[in-house]
Design goal:
The protein has a 5-stranded parallel β-sheet, sandwiched between helices. It is elongated and about 60 Å long. Helix 2 packs parallel to helix 3 and helix 6 crosses helix 8. The protein is α/β, with parallel strands linked by helices. The chain starts with a strand and ends with a strand. The chain has 2 domains: 116 residues, Rossmann fold (3-Layer(aba) Sandwich), CATH 3.40.50.2300; 93 residues, Arc Repressor Mutant, subunit A (Orthogonal Bundle). It contains 8 helices and 11 strands.
Length: 223
Amino acid sequence: MKILLVEDDDDIRRALSLSLKADGHVFDVAEDGERGYLLASTNDYDLIILDYNLPRLSGREITQKIRQENINTPVLILTVRSEINDKVDLLNIGADDYLTKPFATSELLARIKAITRRPKIWQGHILKFRDIELDPDKFLVLKNHKRINLSTKEFALLEYLLRNRGQIMSRQKIIEHVWDENADPFSNTIEVHIRSLRRKLDDDRHKLIFTFSNRGYKIDEKK
């Protein structure tokens, strides 16, 4: 899962970044509303976390702008505002949820799971393909009902390809979604992780991940 975190408070931003990383999430970070809006409007995220009181553009303004542009990425707003009218306003402009400061990071992580479990056209809960099952909530991959141990990046890469089954996913898209905006697009890290997944999940009868030269990778029944 890839998340955008927009928070101007240094201490809160660092604490949330550590919690998101420990929970296995890939994320980009912005320190002000303008940068946050730019990232939100030009990248593909599974969730956007916005502080309400941001410099340059508020979390409320960012939410309004991306909804006007038909960007339907779930939005979670962090706010010190506790009045019912303020909360209703956030939901009415398109936020999916809000969390009142101060809050425990465990509650934030629980909200993230709850929001991203909500049905989307392309997203199911447990992803299945042939004899492989992937459960995002439990960080669990089964092959023929036997657990397969994957690293965090291997898991995220497999989940991304499964969610986009039948589509060729370019190196750039994979880097943006599974790694982050600072990753080196010219390194061989994708190839290394693809080889590792093949070693763990391929069998004599079936190939799981197909390579398309100069185009990308795809999970499908056949090339």
